[in-house]
Each structure stands twice: as C-alpha cells, then as structure tokens.
Amino acid sequence: MSADDKRRRQFQALGKNRSKAYRNSYRNDLYEDSSGYSGAYYGTDNDHRQAGYRKPAGASYQRSTKKGRSPHRRYSSYTGRSSQSAAARRRAARRRRRNINIIKLILALVALLLILAGIIFGVKKLIGIIKGPEDYIATVSEARIEDTTEPETTAQSKKDRILSEANLLALQYDYDSAIELIRSDEEVAGSAEGIDAMARYEEIKSGLVEQDISKITHVFFHSLVVDEENAFNKEKWGRQADGYNQVMTTVTEFEKMLDKFYSDGFVLVGLHDMASMQPDEDGNMVMTPGKIMLPSGKKAMVMSQDDLCYYEYMEGAGFADRIIVGDDGKPTCVYTAPDGSEITGDYDLVPILDRFVEEHPDFSYRGAKACLAFTGYNGILGYRTDETYDPDSDMYDSEKKANENIEADRETARQVISCLKDAGYELASHSWGHKNYTDISYDHMKRDADRWDKNVNKELMDGECDIILFPFGADVGDWHMYTHDNAKFDYLWDLGFRYFCNVDSSQYWVQLGKDYMRQGRRNLDGYAMWNDIANGKNRLSDLFDASEIFSDKRPTPVPGY
Ligand SMILES: [Zn+2]
Fold this sequence. Notes:
The chain is of the alpha/beta class. It has helices spanning 3-14, 20-32, 38-42, 46-68, 71-79, 86-131, 133-171, 175-183, 186-190, 192-206, 228-231, 234-237, 239-247, 251-263, 271-274, 349-359, 406-422, 442-460, 487-494, 526-533, 546-549, and strands at 208-210, 217-221, 266-268, 275-279, 285-289, 293-295, 299-305, 322-325, 331-336, 342-345, 371-374, 426-429, 467-469, 499-503, 510-512, 517-523. The chain has four domains: 3-68, no CATH class; 86-131; 133-206, no CATH class; 210-549, Glycoside hydrolase/deacetylase (TIM Barrel).
C-alpha cells in the first residue's frame, strides 16, 4: 500500500461521522475511482450501502435477464425441430393439446369464482340496505372518519412539531421559551402531552443552579489537523511541523475532548451569555453579568478557535482549505485529499462541533457554539479577501498573488459569516497582522486595528464585532482593571470592542469591568498536553487526562516554544 493509499484509507475511517455532503462527494469520488474503497465505505452507512448496492447489482441483473431471453437462445431451441421424427412430432402435438386443455380448465374455474364472489358481494350489500339504518350509519360514519384523517394528521403533526421544538428549547436550557411555545397553541397547551411537558419543564426549572460567571473556563484551539502524518512531517515542513505539533490539536483529539467535556457535564455558553452591555438605572450602558441557569452537575464552558483563515502557508499541510455553506445550508469544510481531489465534510472545529451539538443538543446553552477569531492579512475562512490581494487597490501587495476573483470571494465569505452566526457562533478579531499588542507601539496597534476594522469587520461582517482574542494572548494591560487612561484599551474600546481575551494557564480568570469583560483562555494543544504528560504539570486535569487524548502520531517530545 502506498503512503497515499494509506492516508486515503485513514480518511475513510475518519469519514464515519462525516456530513452528507462529504459522503456524497466522497461517494462520487469513489465511483469515479476504483471500487476497492466502496466496500469499506458503504459498510459504515446503511442508506448509502443500499444505494450503492442497487446500482451495480441492478445493472448486472438486467444484463443476465437480457441474456436469458435473448433471441439467439430462442432461435437455437427452434432449430432442433427439423430433425425430429413424425412420432415425436405427434407426441409433442398431443402434449400441446393437453396443456391447452389444462389452461382452458383453469380459466373456466377463475371465471366461476369471480361470478360467485360478485353474487356474494351483491347479496351482502342488499342485505345491508334491507337490514336498516344502523349499519348504514355505521358505514357512513366509518367513511367520515376516513375522510377526516387528513386534517387530523395535520393537527397531529403540528402538535408533534410544537412539542419537539419545545423539547429542543428545554434541552438547551431555555425552559421559559419552551413553556411559552406550548402555551401559544391552545390545543397543544390543553393536551395531555402539553400539560405533562410544561409540568416537567417547571420541575427542572425549580432545580436549576446559577453559574458563577467568575468561574467559567475558556478553552481554545487553532485549525484542527486532519492529516497528522502530513502536518507533523518534519522533513516536509521543517520547523513549521514543530509549530503544528505545538499549537495545533488534531481532529481525533478534538473529538475525544468533546466526548469527555460532554460526559463531564460541560455546556457551551457564549461570551455574550456571560455578560452583556445593559442599561443601568440611570440609563448608562454597563457590562452586566448574565444569569446562566443550568441543572445541577452542569458546568458552563466557553470555546474559541483562533486564526480561522487557512493561511497560505498551511496549504497542502493536512488542514481544511476553506469553509463553505453546505448543501444543507450549514457550514462545512472543503479539504483536499492526498490524491488532489476536493472533498467536503467535517474537517475542522465548526462542522465537527455542529454535528456534535446536533447529536447532543444539551451540550449547548441556547444554541451557543464557539467564538471564531480572524486575522486579516491572508483574508478569512480560506478566501483571499484582503485588500492586499486586490490588484485594483492602492493597498495591493505586489508580493502576493493577486486575487482576480476578490469581489466574488468577499461575497462568499459574507455568506459563510452569516451562516456561522445563524449556527450560533460568535465572531472575534485576532488583530489584522497577528500582532503582539503588548509589545507594539500605540500607533502601530492603531494602524493594525484600523486595518482589521476596515477589511474584516466592515467589509465582511456586520461592522459590530465587539470581541478581541489577543494574538499570543498578548493583552494591552496587566491583571489590574482596565481604565480609559490606558490608551490602547481606550482605542480598542472606541472601535467597539467590549470583550477582551488573553491567554492564561489557570482554570479560569474573569474580570468584569464597568464597560468591558476580560477572560483568560487555555490552549488545548500539543504543547499543553505534552506539558501535562511529560513535565508532570497538572494544568488540564480538571478537563481530561492528557495521556488519554494525546495522539500517538505526534512526534515527541513536543518542542517547547
Ligand atoms: Zn493566533
């Protein structure tokens, strides 16, 4: 097996939970390719196995039937006739006559049976009418019941729909909306199931526990490694492979973490759920803690992903290429397989998390997913949308490959952004040039922040981004409260930022100012896991045992920063 084949097979294994779009595209791929893969692949998916089975089996069945009835064969059976003797011909004629007589007899019997059935039916109907009105009424009302099935089914499906929508709201901890939804429909509210559901939600509500905003952990990731052998190949990527090993998490590690988080009772919340700008008594907007109520045993968690740009340098290194809006209207990834074909599916955090929440709705508080952070210099989401790629712009960078398609790409990126927001993702700045805001001067930071605001916030988002996840975790202040005397903070605040996240190795670090919120984040990457495993650190043990997550395909030791 060649290395490519081997990797190809790993992708198949990875494909077990992949999206329909991926399955379809992969299936097409398989059809075009040799069928050697299809057995293993279809074995993982019933529907597709059937679909895949029908095609070849049907084709071969048709072929063999045609062959069986081919004029050739019929013709050859008649040719024997001329060599038969007269006696044999007579015997054959007798046999034919006997067969014809048998057929005639069968036909006569069938006709007789039909006549008998007709008589019985007619007599029965006649008796029914003579018998009097009761049976007649019964027959008519039976007919009426049948007639009303249609509207009843509609009512039933409406009721089912309302109850299942309410159930989803309640699963995601919005009991009030669930109850309100049932109440909004008199019929459902008065039904046994409606009453039962409302009582159940009220009961759960009475046992909810308020989350301590100051103790919410925030974990973060970078683009997930799909092809580990590729990304961690030092001969191929040099020092960059060390970088991937340090700061990236793999798809399989991430999936293991999700399972662990979920089974430990973690529930994803948004930064805007933790606190939000609300008017106080005097009408001044102040950062007000949110009231997150969860059943006892559940714990709020914030998740984010940095650098969701699919940088140029990452091309071909075993990561997704870009995010698109899938056929089902949901965000999904395009990934280039080792053989060069583009496939679509769950190849990064967003679609993997979406699938997980679809299967475990109670992992998300009111639909919250993760916070996604973008730089600007290489565009976002895998589209080279920045002005430095625009050959018509004064800002065009001649060292970059001009994007002749830039307007169309910007439009696509806008659509993906809106799709991500609809799916429950928050959006954040990660600076334009991945700059260290602690180290660079105020003027430098201002230029960089303005560039991000222009090229990403205003060009591709709705211009209302209020979250910044500092690159390198490099904050614009120390642990003391921010004040507007801090020029960098003041400038970012004026640009609209209210949520500021650095990187902190402690379990949680939250600071609520009068007009901002700050939170520390924890990197769950190769470096952090290796630090726990080999250096005896104990920084992730509240989340998982790093040795149970850490991929055995990672070269060790994971180099330090
Ligand atoms: Zn970064």
